[in-house]
Amino acid sequence: MTRMRADARRNAERIVAAAGAVIAEQGADASLEEIARRAGVGSATLHRRFPARRALLEAVFRDRVAVLCARAEELLDSADPGEALFTWLRAVGAHAVANRGLSASLMLGSECHDMIINAGEGLLGRARAAEEVRPEITIVHLLKLVSAISLATEQDPDGPAEADHLLAIALDGIRPR
Amino acid sequence: MTRMRADARRNAERIVAAAGAVIAEQGADASLEEIARRAGVGSATLHRRFPARRALLEAVFRDRVAVLCARAEELLDSADPGEALFTWLRAVGAHAVANRGLSASLMLGSECHDMIINAGEGLLGRARAAEEVRPEITIVHLLKLVSAISLATEQDPDGPAEADHLLAIALDGIRPR
DNA sequence: CTACGATATGGAGGACCACCCCACTTTGCA
DNA sequence: TGCAAAGTGGGGTGGTCCTCCATATCGTAG
């Protein structure tokens, strides 16, 4: 939010756009050099603006994570707290699989990470109060599970279907007996 | 098993040993150059003997995977088929967490992958016959789940404990309702 | 509207990597 | 013991990430 010069802002936007495209094609460990090249920017510019790869991933996925957070907000009004939580976790998984690299970015302790944890906390709290979820399970556990599955199926031929199935299996484990 | 010259065999063994050490320290994406250096061998030798990183990982972990397969064999005689399967999956997870990089190697379609799938198949079949596991679940699902969790917790501060907990949660989902 | 300091830029270069080529050395069989 | 076949590793190629710094651009104060 610091005042940025107009050209700096423009370049930052081009970098994020290019990064989105390249990461979608090649995954989260795509070449930063290639991203800079495709953004029409020197590599030094990219490195100054985003000192670590993590910072770039964060910028790329921030708004998509915001969408998931908004969805969590909506689901807080749903009648069935347990189902609301499951629905949301599935949505997180689907997003992570659809956007290559997002799951990697969710694992890193970043701003995105915190945003999504806060969003999920509410849903989990409600589900727990309704005794639809075992009490010792935390939102961090759940998100790690979702990220892990997405990451593991990322370079699989039939990724999305597989991921959803695995997620369904794993999530059955969180209900109270 | 083709006849190898004595020096070639000796160098191959040194490379595998060095790779084991370096991978344990730095993870599955350790530098091959560093491995060659530590084995006292030119990098060309390493690349000729192991044309892909996967081949080297396989050689490093083959015997550890064999241990897991043997354990599966033992557990086939256990009285409780469901518990036997869970015990084994937990052992697989523990091994994957203890040996950095093993989980990555398990995910790649390799000889190790096939070995461990064959080993698990027997345990799963028994558990399924005893109706301790939902029928649509495959051994590939289970191993992917275990690998994913290990991989996800690999660079976590409290990895092992976390991984075991997540695994316990996920595995609760495979029991019939 | 101009001049000037703060800000931003990107090419060049250093350190590292995977992987390959090929002149040389070692091996083990006849 | 001779010698062809097998094995070796230094050095090269082209890629990566990241940093320095001379240069170009911006936005404002005058």
Which chains make the largest contact? A-B, 21 and 21 residues
Anisotropy-based shape of chain A: elongated
The CATH architecture of the largest domain in chain A would be Orthogonal Bundle
Question: Uncertain regions of chain A: pLDDT < 50 for 5+ in a row?
Answer: none
Task: Give, in order, the helices and strands of chain A.
Answer: HHHHHHHHH
Map the helices and strands:
The structure is a homodimer of 177-residue chains.
Chain A lengths: L5 H21 L5 H8 L3 H7 L3 H23 L5 H18 L3 H6 L3 H19 L9 H15 L5 H13 L6
Helix pairs in contact in A: 1-2, 1-4, 4-5, 4-7, 5-7, 5-8, 5-9, 8-9
Chain B binds a DNA duplex (30 and 30 nucleotides) through helix 1, helix 2 and helix 3.
Protein architecture, described:
The structure is a homodimer of 177-residue chains. By secondary structure, chain A is an all-alpha fold. The model of chain A has no long low-confidence stretch (mean pLDDT 89). Chain A has nine helices and no strands. The first copy, chain A, has helices at residues 6-26, 32-39, 43-49, 53-75, 81-98, 102-107, 111-129, 139-153, 159-171. The first copy, chain A, starts with 5 loop residues before the first helix and ends in a 6-residue tail after the last helix. Chain A has two domains: 1-51, Homeodomain-like (Arc Repressor Mutant, subunit A); 60-174, Tetracycline Repressor, domain 2. Chain A is elongated. The longest helix of chain A has 23 residues, at 53-75. The interface between A and B is medium-sized, with 21 and 21 residues. Chain B binds a DNA duplex (30 and 30 nucleotides) through residues 4-8, 11, 31-34, 36, 41-45, 47-48, 51, 53.
